[in-house]
Specification:
By secondary structure, this protein is of the alpha/beta class. The chain has nine helices and eight strands. Helix 1 runs parallel beside helix 2.
């Protein structure tokens, strides 16, 4: 069953507490929490929106499985900013930091739970702000490069097994892929993960763990690429099918 969670147009251009569109973000988070509480699912698939939509599903599933959850963050960016350090104030650069328990208190406290740093694997990230790099180093967060995942498809699954996790949440910001293959995003970053390599890593993870949650976010089809809309959707569909969610 798919349920659409809307977001208010009011306050989209306003900055509050150092965050653009703060009020709509808080409102959407509350709506997602209410929806999840009403059905208490064992698995969640999130499609659409930006990375901020991950707060409710990830924090809920982390609570549901009592932190027996590795969160693989396929993304070209770190998403580890806090309002005081963000260069833009855009919240889609902050959600993973919130899920780790830091950032705006109203938003952090509305999460079902928070993650430990050793539950998080950055996969394919290659565009960090300076403060994000320092945070990754300080917290010793695992970071798997594009080359590592392309050349050693099974290495990520092997590392997760050694940590003892049995369940996965796979976050996919579509800009993790190389823009030459998948340009249908708002913030492309060069030298990304090849599409077939992404499918290979996901297939290996599916064969090794129970994937209890997944997302495909940050899809943006520019006007000059509308004629390729069907092919881009089919690419996303194949990603979700490979993970067993369609």
């Amino acid at each position: 069953m798919f349920t659409q969670v809307g977001v208010s147009d009011q306050g989209q251009n306003e900055i509050e507490k150092g965050i653009f569109a703060y009020a709509p973000i808080v409102e959407q988070q509350d709506r997602c929490n209410t929806l999840i509480n009403s059905c208490r699912p064992d698995r969640i698939l999130t499609i659409g929106g930006d990375c901020s939509v991950e707060l409710a599903p990830v924090s809920y599933l982390n609570s549901r499985y009592q932190k027996d959850l590795a969160v693989i963050w396929f993304d070209s960016h770190g998403d580890l900013n806090i309002p005081e350090e963000s260069l833009s104030g855009h919240f889609h650069g902050m959600p993973l930091r919130v899920l780790l328990g830091e950032g705006d208190r109203r938003i952090v406290d509305a999460c079902f739970s928070t993650l430990f740093p050793d539950q998080v694997i950055l996969a394919g990230a290659r565009d960090f702000d300076a403060a994000e790099k320092e945070f990754v180093k300080q917290k010793r967060i695992q970071h798997w490069s594009v080359d590592e995942m392309t050349n050693e498809l099974k290495s990520l699954a092997g590392w997760i097994k050694k940590q003892g996790f049995t369940k996965l949440y796979i976050h996919i910001d579509l800009d993790v892929m190389d823009p030459k293959e998948f340009p249908y995003v708002g913030y492309p970053v060069e030298n990304g993960l090849p599409y077939e390599a992404l499918l290979g890593v996901i297939s290996t993870l599916k064969n090794s763990f129970e994937i209890v949650g997944m997302s495909a976010v940050e899809f943006s089809l520019h006007k000059d690429l509308w004629h390729k809309g069907d092919s881009s959707v089919r690419m996303v569909e194949k990603i979700l099918k490979t993970a067993g969610f369609l």
